[in-house]
Design a protein that fits this description.
There is one protein chain. Helix 1 (9-40) packs antiparallel against helix 2 and helix 1 runs antiparallel to helix 3. This protein has one domain (9-202). By secondary structure, the protein is mostly helical. The chain is built from eight helices and no strands.
Length: 203
């Protein structure tokens, strides 16, 4: 009997492709983050953290199967290392914890809900995991409790808006082009359009 929760080849290819692209962008985003941090301080870095959680949420929203978020972030982290990251160990640890944080959000709803609030929660859990990881790896002893709290707050906001809301908008825009018709998100959107058309015809 075919396992409906198992990834098929098409889903694996798309997940890997998206994650590889984001892995390259993750590395480039570091330089942008350093620039913003130079202007706004550590809080500025927190505002950008959600970008590093986009690959798992985008892939999970499109495919809607268990394990996608964690796997996607690990692929993105691996790609970031291959294209030039000098902190391979830290990147892999962050990839695992960030992906796991996002994965937990979908697991809490038994992988049955991928609505915006769930995507935003996934982004927040991903950035919270990122905060905890970097806190224990590096510590924030150089910052006051106020600055550390502000960092966490901005990271959670970035996770909700940049990772959650941003990923949803990217995927929804792709869905309108028809390129995702063979994936869970595309099928859901197509069904919704058919129902809407049927209601309009009988309205």
């Amino acid at each position: 009997m075919k396992n409906k929760k198992a990834l098929n080849l098409r889903e694996i290819v798309v997940m890997a492709s998206i994650s590889v692209v984001f892995g390259v962008l993750y590395l480039l985003w570091i330089f942008f983050g350093q620039f913003i941090q130079g202007i706004l301080g550590p809080v500025g870095w927190g505002l950008l953290t959600g970008f590093w959680i986009m690959a798992p949420i985008l892939c999970a929203y499109i495919i809607q199967k268990p394990g996608v978020a964690l796997t996607a972030e690990l692929i993105a982290a691996g790609t970031e290392i291959l294209v030039g990251s000098v902190n391979a160990g830290v990147v892999l640890i962050l990839g695992f914890t960030q992906g796991l944080g996002a994965e937990i959000a979908f697991a809490l709803f038994f992988y049955r809900s991928y609505r915006l609030p769930v995507l935003m929660l996934a982004g927040m859990l991903g950035t919270f995991a990122s905060f905890l990881t970097t806190y224990f790896l590096y510590g924030y002893s150089q910052y006051s409790p106020l600055i550390t709290g502000l960092m966490l707050g901005t990271m959670l906001i970035s996770g909700a808006l940049l990772a959650g809301w941003g990923s949803k908008n990217i995927a929804d825009a792709l869905t309108k082009t028809g390129v995702l018709d063979n994936f869970a998100l595309g099928k859901i959107r197509r069904t919704q359009r058919m129902k809407k058309d049927a209601i309009s015809e009988h309205g």
